[in-house]
Write a structure and sequence with these properties.
By secondary structure, the protein is α+β, with helices and mostly antiparallel strands. Helix content is about 25%, strand content about 30%.
């Protein structure tokens, strides 16, 4: 018997964007405190991406996280060039982020502080990464 009903050609696709609503993290008290959306949700996503070392955790895809640990012990000139590329690559995986700009570096033999602007479809905000190199 041949099935009756709608064919694949009759399928209507929904092009609406998904909401960016997610659980809101209270990092001071290590709790979830409701939900957040739009720019605040992207800020939280940026924090989580930059705190997660890429390829380390099986529960995340290979596109999630930043490869920053591998820069420890490298020359400051190498760290400057690679940090910008790796941060931009990690954050641009999120469809809500449209750009990562205005990088400013303070890299020494011991540590690195990188400031930059994250441009999103909801607005822009400044972010900073600090660490040992």
């Amino acid at each position: 018997m041949i099935p009756q009903g709608a064919s694949i050609g009759d399928t209507v696709l929904d092009d609406r964007l998904e909401t960016s609503a997610t659980y809101k993290l209270d990092l001071t008290n290590n709790r979830i405190v409701g939900t957040t959306d739009r720019l605040e949700a992207v800020k939280q996503a940026v924090f989580k991406i930059l705190q997660t070392e890429r390829y380390r955790y099986f529960c995340y895809s290979d596109d999630y996280g930043a490869e920053l640990q591998g820069l420890i012990g490298e020359a400051p000139s190498f760290v400057r060039s690679e940090m910008e590329r790796r941060i931009r690559e990690a954050l641009m995986q999120d469809d809500r982020i449209t750009g990562v700009t205005d990088f400013q570096f303070d890299v020494t033999e011991e540590s690195a502080a990188i400031q930059f602007t994250v441009v999103t479809e909801f607005g822009s905000f400044g972010e900073e990464v600090n660490g040992r190199v």
